[in-house]
Amino acid sequence: MAQKTGGQLLVEALETHGAERVFCVPGESYLAVLDALHDANIPVTVCRQEGGAAMMAEAHGKLTGRPGICMVTRGPGATNASAGVHVAAQDSTPMILFIGQIERGMREREAFQEVDYRQMFGGIAKWVAEIDHADRVPEFISRAYHVATSGRPGPVVLALPEDTLVELADVNQPEPWKQVETHPGLTQMADLQKRLWAAERPIAILGGSRWTAEAVAAFTRFAERFELPVACSFRRQMLFDNLHPNYAGDVGIGANPKLLARIKASDLVLLVGGRLSEMPSQSYTLLDIPQPSQQFIHVYPDPDELGRVYRPSLAINASPTAFCKAAEGCSRRPATNARAPLKRLTQTTSHGRAPGRRRRARCRWQASWTIWRPTPLPARSSPMARATMPPGCTASTVSASLARRLLPPPAQWGMACQAQLLPSSPSRSRMWSALPVTAACR
Fold first, then answer.
1. What DSSP element (H or E) covers 232?
2. How many other CB atoms are there within 10 angstroms of residue 6's CB atom?
3. What pLDDT is recorded for position 295?
4. Residues with Cβ < 8 Å from 38, sequence gap 6 or more?
5. Which of 46, 118, 341, 437 could form a disulfide with 419 if both were Cys (CB 3.0 to 4.6 A apart)?
6. Phi then psi dihedrals of residue 221, to 5 deg
């Protein structure tokens, strides 16, 4: 394999990870990268000022969900670009800022436009580093993509010493970057459904990043099923159709006082993707800190944010995309004419004796809407349960004891699936009596 300069390796890494465009103000401190871009297939937008280039990269990251790429020269160029880095940090936008840097041998001598970027950007960027060796360029670019997009997205700053960019190295590129999703658990979604069923004045607030068009549509269907009023956080009005009957308004600067009163009077607040920072929280007066007076359910992709300001009643560590996909399995509030309370999931024999623990049925969803049958048990006479499932059920395994913990109170059992326990063989038909069995769809 032919050796390549650090600048060529950097541009090659950007192509590998699917960079769609580079926003920059050209500078002499990273000429080797500009030379490599001339021969690459990545479009380059040349800007008049570094602040504008950084803002464009931030907007690109916000619109696409992929890191926006910005390149500036050292010293004043980096200072001008800091505004865009700060916006990316505040708005949780994936972004990578490359800054030309002095040669490695000139450090600590106050060379022309020398700046310690770890100190300069350490408080507003997710990660700040300086690439000291050309053979580590692919490693740093891969890590930058993953850090900028994982958990709560944000900006990454990489300094590029001039001599590193012209240094030759022979190194392979890693696999392209892939988005890491965090998904909610079955128990959490069942708990959420039960809380929404019991709530009388719930409201949802949408915010943050890592949303897709599919996630927006999925949450709209979720809000319709649960008859949820939905408000959008500061500068996030695009997350819910403003003409939809469930739209309640935006929670930002100059929010409608009636909307704020409705949130304060609610008995459950579902916050998906947002942090409820200064603007949407009305200078941190909307909810009590640290313990809100109402039930507070917080869905967020970064576990460090859950409980940092507001202590949630239910914390769900999941990205908005994964949460909305899981929410498709939640069923609507049960009807008022609920079914009668169900008996235990154990049977009695025709002689009145309990058949024992080995004959307790453990069941699972075999398909999303067709058959419900038990997992095979080591017992010789494991019963079979058959039922026709309505649309919306998803594959999951529950035991009798877990089902009793997760299901709502008996008075709320309405959207349930009816089944009967049948004998495992004709010879044992007299040992089992038909019994209705209910399992809530999630």
1. strand 230-233
2. 27
3. 96
4. none
5. 437
6. -65, -40
Nearest 5°: the CA angle 373, 374, 379 is 145
Task: Report helix, strand or coil for 129.
Answer: strand
Residue 402: CA atoms inside 13 Å, Cβ hemisphere, count?
13
Place of tokens 């990269």: 57
Mean pLDDT by runs of 10 across the 442 residues of the chain is: 90 96 95 94 96 97 95 95 96 96 88 91 95 95 96 96 94 90 94 95 95 95 95 94 95 94 96 94 95 96 94 96 94 60 36 42 33 36 36 41 47 40 37 35 34
Give me the DSSP letters along 132-197: --GGGHHHHHHHHHHHHHSSS--EEEEEEEHHHHH-EE-----PPP-PPP----HHHHHHHHHHHH
Distance CA 290, CA 267 (A): 17
Bridge partners for 138 per DSSP: none
- Nearest Cα residue to 36 out of 20, 14, 55: 14
pTM of the complete model: 0.73
The residue among 257, 259, 219 whose CA lies nearest residue 238 is 219
SS3 readout for 28-80: HHHHHHHHHHHCCCCCEEECCCHHHHHHHHHHHHHHHCCCEEEEECCCHHHHH
Listed in sequence order, the residues at least 6 apart from 336 whose beta carbon sits closer than 8 Å to its beta carbon are 414
Q: At what angle do helices 6-16 and 31-38 cross, to 10 degrees?
A: 50
Q: Which residue has the tokens 């990316």?
A: 88
pLDDT of residue 44: 96
Look at the block and give the residue holding tokens 């490695």: 104
Residues 252, 256, 257, 258, Cα dihedral to 10°? -130
Tally helices (H) and strands (E) across the chain: 12, 20
8-state DSSP, 258: H
Give kind and range of the element (H or E) at residue 221. helix 213-226
Which amino acid is residue 309, in one-letter code?
V
CB 23, CB 70: distance < 8 Å: yes
* Angle ∠(54,60,66) on CA atoms, nearest 5: 110
